[in-house]
Amino acid sequence: MSDIVEKTLTALPGLFLQNQPGGGPSAAKASFSSRLGSLVRGITALTSKHEEEKLIQQELSSLKATVSAPTTTLKMMKECMVRLIYCEMLGYDASFGYIHAIKLAQQGSLLEKRVGYLAVSLFLHESHELLLLLVNTVVKDLQSTNLVEVCMALTVVSQIFPREMIPAVLPLIEDKLQHSKEIIRRKAVLALYKFHLIAPNQVQHIHIKFRKALCDRDVGVMAASLHIYLRMIKENSSGYKDLTGSFVTILKQVVGGKLPVDFNYHSVPAPWLQIQLLRILGLLGKDDQRTSELMYDVLDESLRRAELNHNVTYTLELLYRITNAQNVTVIVQKMLEYLHQSKEEYVIVNLVGKIAELAEKYAPDNAWFIQTMNAVFSVGGDVMHPDIPNNFLRLLAEGFDDETEDQQLRLYAVQSYLTLLDVENVFYPQRFLQVMSWVLGEYSYLLDKETPEEVIAKLYKLLINDSVSSETKAWLIAAVTKLTPQAHSSNTIDRLIQEFTISLDTCVRQHAFELKHLHENVELMRSLLPVDRSCEDLVVDASLSFLDGFVAEGLSQGAAPYKPHHQRQEENLSQEKVLNFEPYGLSFSSSGFTGRQSPAGISLGSDVSGNSAETGLKETNGLKLEGIKKLWGREGYLPKKESKTGDESGAPPIPQESIMENVDQAITKKDQSQALTQSKEEKEKQLLASSLFVGLGSESTVNLLGKADTVSHKFRRKSKVKDTKSGETTTTHNMTCSSFGSLSNAAYEDNYYLNTLHDRGDKELKKFSLNSELLDSESLTELPLVEKFSHCSLSTPSLFADNNMEIFHPPQSSTASVANESSLASSFLEETTEYIHSDVMKVCNNETISVSSNKVWKDDCLLMVWSVTNKSGLELKNANLEIFPAENFKVTEQPGCCVPVMEAESTKSFQFSVQIEKPFTKGNLSGFISYHVMDTHSAQLEFSVDLSLLDFIRPLKISSEDFGKLWLSFANDVKQNVKMSESQAALPSVLKTLQQKLRLHIVDIIGNEGLLACQLLPSIPCLLHCRIHADVLALWFRSSCSTLPDYLLYQCQKVMEGS
Amino acid sequence: MQFMLLFSRQGKLRLQKWYVPLSDKEKKKITRELVQTVLARKPKMCSFLEWRDLKIVYKRYASLYFCCAIEDQDNELITLEIIHRYVELLDKYFGSVCELDIIFNFEKAYFILDEFLLGGEVQETSKKNVLKAIEQADLLQEFQKVH
């Protein structure tokens, strides 16, 4: 029968069309596809229901004409269908299009078919007569070799299918239960579920196949089969008692976390599946003692896990927030207890971070601190955040205020590690071993009893252990190297050298060779590896001044002065007057500076060909320690990438006697007379409670929303090193600064302050911090304070082109309304803290209202604020501001964009956050404001605002090292030389201009070269390397995005011309 | 689940999915009634309400209300999580989704819904799997455009 119907359909004139658009102009098609957009916009612009009705009727009649016109292509038909769905959603009848939806599903290629099927499923219901026309299409698609077509057919069948036609598709769908793709099997099961609902008799014979689905290896297929089982068991529970065991097993696996992690929902394992299974078990166990008994265990477990998952996370968070110096021991103990039984990686990482932070902040004594950190390293091992071991080592190395106490802490750490290493058959995570090796290497000299030889022997034992990774081995050899000068004689060292200089691992072999050579010259080794000097600034003679004699000799014999590769290349180019579009990143590796990958590194070398004595200001004996330096000095504990080897397994429990003791003490202190009357359990709880909440009185301010930094930390790091990340950068940096003239130096400092200012997280303190920064500023100390301040605000260069840096305070009224709204919408929230913003600009006005806008350059987006002022004496109602969707942007309405009532002469602000979707050169946002005056008269006002890509450029704060790494990883490369006037051609002023006008971040300045970085929101980085050569500024951009360098180059040129 | 409705704060319907056969008239009536009821509720009020012989579970995300009707024996808490997972899926697909995404690409929102819920039942809860299915279909479209 359906064949006939299909033939009839085919015969309908003008309904069947070829896929070809018949040479229609593509412009017409493009405009056609955005018709939905204009329809939506048209409707939004309307103010009355009546107008809407008129517009939709118009739209519908035009659609009606289009869908029945013979020239309408399937592609156009698809677009029409989308608009028809939209009209139906608004409540208008579009039934003339139903037949065309079926046709589209039948004839369209994938793109159109998908929409056709969707329209059918939205337009029709299962007893609709037109649905019969779909059957053949479904049959055809079920037999298709294209997976997507099969999926579409199954999806529609699972939603609507005429009951009487089930036999036509049933065998096909049954076949799909054996399909190799799980998505097909899953959808087939759901289609059969649908059949079971509407015609249970028709699927009775395949019940056995459902059992197969229940045991499917794919979770989705298994879960889908549960819908059928729930239904069938509801109807007849006694028929499925034999499956109880299977359901119990499945539930056990689910709650045991055996499912793939992507079935977790906010760290709860497959909650939907759990509930489904529990409902099934509930039905099976009802009034049946014997079946119920089978479930007790798993029910108990599910309940326990549910409580644990839900409450523990919350409790731990709460505990973390209430921690202070008095209750830290008991809280950390609780956390450790949970940590030891926890298996989920996320929980471990999170918890370990919290414990480390609390221990560092509030540790009551050395022993406790080290023990706790031991637990952190053993359990957190290789999953924890690399900051944890780094901070720990830094803390140990830098110490705090009391030198004796520092030494005690170090000694305790050394002793504790030696004890741990004595335990047989225990494997520690690699990171922990690395921490141990560093500490043992640095601080074993503090030991009284054990000799360096003994320590070396222990390290050697680890070195020959197969389960130790080669990275850790490098750490171990470095530790041995540090200990060697202290040891009198050691066979172990000789053995080690012998064994590891033939190691297959190059890194280990390198270290072994270094040890070997140093070992031959004990005096040198002693001076090179002094005891307890890890915090001293390591001065590296980057200028290679010890080669001066060699260079001078070469020059005197007529050799040309050295020029680095890229400079040579550049000069060649400028002679040829041809642009080179070849990326020349490779020149880095060819210039022979191993280990230096950034342009900064290269230019360091390039600078010193003739005048190395001048730049190499602070030189020592000038030894290069490439290999050892990596582990020694501050660099030594920078985060390292680690290969995940299977060594998490045997994380040992850490002895916690000291923790226990502390708790006991805390407990016994409590009021004992009161405790006598209570049961033991009660008593324990109460004691725990009192030890938990100790110190939480009114006198101690604990900020529940974030850890207030007013609390004094046990281990406060010395401020000296707080801001510098690596000794090496500081040195170079200082060297550069000192080589500047005093004027440029001041200018640079100016920028530097601005930078630090910008870096500050607590923006509300901007002005004050500015002030305090000034107090530290040496260059201005002679000025009286007030003058200093005013001087600063005058001289502080604006970060942005139009010189209007202000602190953005949202208008009071909007704060109020935002606050109001924020309670309604928990997500999509934007903070209204202070950001730098543009001038307020009037965008449109009429006699009643005026609209002005300004841009707020937030860190993560551009926030457009439109302030609407009601100038009239009348109340305005339903003031609503909408922004039209724009091609390159994503505009998100901030809460509070519809204001029910606007009083006379008031101002409301509307905020929209704008995100960029793809780079552009020129863009604009347009929108309108609509409002009602006196409930009757309505009005609307349009406006538009220009946006530039610069609105989305933000400084990218990275270190020189990161700059170097990123630089090499970027493929898009743009270079250009810009000629400048003599007066401009000073690097500091150029950098300052770029920083202010283009919001580039100055990463580093090395000689006459500057490194800058910025990012295009959300996160497309772009790096700039610039160099001044006479009056030519060589700009070199690199980015992961192909268009960004060109754009920034253009902006740079504009800025340079303008300045 | 009996049906799902998405509507704006202004009461404009943005998406509707009916899992039970109803006449157009009935659908309109239900929609009107529910939109009014839900919009009239205060922000601090419960997300669940009894309505006719059904239970309504709704949640507001920015300017958009997500509203589901479930049967008496269904679990309203897990339904609330269904809503949230759907929002997560939309968010992942569109990248911090907003109402405009859903208005202008409502067919996409339907496609995602159909991969997540099918015939009123949860079809697939793994975010990865749902989006994979959508991407596969999208990819084929791209492929088609090229050829």
UniProtKB/TrEMBL annotation, chain A:
Predominant location category: membrane
UniProt cross-references to InterPro entries, sorted A to Z: Adaptor_Complx_Large_Subunit, AP4_complex_esu, AP4E1_C, ARM-like, ARM-type_fold, Clathrin/coatomer_adapt-like_N
Region (Disordered): 639-659
Single biological process term from Gene Ontology: vesicle-mediated transport
Membrane topology designation: Peripheral membrane protein
UniProt keyword annotations, A-Z: Golgi apparatus, Membrane, Protein transport, Transport
UniProt keyword Transport present: yes
GO cellular component: AP-4 adaptor complex; endomembrane system
Domain AP-4 complex subunit epsilon-1 C-terminal, chain residue ranges per copy: 954-1057
Intracellular or extracellular location(s): Endomembrane system
The organism's place on the tree of life at top rank: Eukaryota
Protein transport keyword on record: yes
Function description: Component of the adaptor protein complex 4 (AP-4). Adaptor protein complexes are vesicle coat components involved both in vesicle formation and cargo selection. They control the vesicular transport of proteins in different trafficking pathways. AP-4 forms a non clathrin-associated coat on vesicles departing the trans-Golgi network (TGN) and may be involved in the targeting of proteins from the trans-Golgi network (TGN) to the endosomal-lysosomal system.
UniProt record similarity statement: Belongs to the adaptor complexes large subunit family.
Record's subunit section: Adaptor protein complex 4 (AP-4) is a heterotetramer composed of two large adaptins, a medium adaptin and a small adaptin.
Name of the protein in its database record: AP-4 complex subunit epsilon
Species of the source: Cebus imitator (Panamanian white-faced capuchin)
From TrEMBL, chain B:
UniProt signal peptide: none
Membrane association type: Peripheral membrane protein
Matching SUPFAM superfamilies: SNARE-like (SSF64356)
Listed GO biological process terms: intracellular protein transport
Keywords: Coated pit, Cytoplasmic vesicle, Golgi apparatus, Membrane, Protein transport, Transport
Record-annotated membrane-spanning stretches: none
Localisation: Cytoplasmic vesicle membrane; Golgi apparatus; Membrane, Clathrin-coated pit
Homology family: Belongs to the adaptor complexes small subunit family.
Function of the molecule: Subunit of clathrin-associated adaptor protein complex 1 that plays a role in protein sorting in the late-Golgi/trans-Golgi network (TGN) and/or endosomes. The AP complexes mediate both the recruitment of clathrin to membranes and the recognition of sorting signals within the cytosolic tails of transmembrane cargo molecules.
Protein name (Swiss-Prot/TrEMBL): AP complex subunit sigma
Organism in which the protein naturally occurs: Cebus imitator (Panamanian white-faced capuchin)
Gene that encodes the chain: AP1S2
